[in-house]
Amino acid sequence: MKIALLVCDHVPEDLQPVHGTYPQMFESFFQLPMDAWYVCDDNFPALEDYDAFICTGSRFSVYDDIPWIKQLQEFTRLVYRAEKKYVGVCYGHQMIAQALGGEVKRSEHGYLIGIHTFEVIQTSYWMEPVVTFYNSLMLCQDQVMQLPVDGQILAKSPQCRVGMYSVGKHFLGIQGHPEFTNAYNRDLFERRLNIGDNEKKSVALKSFEEKKPDSLLLAGYLRNFLHS
Prior knowledge:
The chain is α/β, with parallel strands linked by helices. It has a single domain (3-227), classed as Rossmann fold, CATH 3.40.50. It is 33% helix and 28% strand. The protein has helices at 16-19, 22-30, 67-82, 91-99, 182-192, 198-210, 215-227, and strands at residues 3-7, 35-38, 52-55, 85-89, 103-106, 112-120, 133-140, 142-146, 151-157, 160-167, 171-174. The protein has a 9-stranded mixed sheet, with helices on both faces. A hairpin with a 2-residue loop joins strand 9 and strand 10 (160-167). It is globular, with a radius of gyration of 16 Å. The mean pLDDT is 95.
């Protein structure tokens, strides 16, 4: 299987020596080879050259009026019509909804950061082993508010109604950052949240002590989906 990674942002330069780049994070997480295409720099792959696509997170919003974001929406629709596999992670998860007729908005809960627990409300054949709950690192303030046609919610949390969802047999979105380490998640939210969010930061830091992200479980799910 030939996979294109649609990279929607850059790791801050001063954090790269410690945490690496997004392509490095995703290859390490998925344990699969993939070609990185920085769509945020207007570099897009040819649809016919790849069997599957993975769309990364981003500091941008999928509804921003920016040319590469508009092009990514159209590219996502082309992948959907071609019935090729597409996995969206955080921003990529939201891009699926935005491109396919759903709705993405700023959440009333504001930034979700730290480790959050999601309830699995529906399982699919690629979700092995079956679990009732999983933990995932979060760093987002936008959320999917309305699913595309044929969208099915697979997991949710009290502050995130659409934690994981599928659209047909070829598209899968997961809110959160299973590819992040705790350290990178912390470094990013320390930068993005202002001084008025000290209580939220405290709760997030406590979550690192009380929970562990189920990164291996989620990596297995997403690999299974791509190969199914």
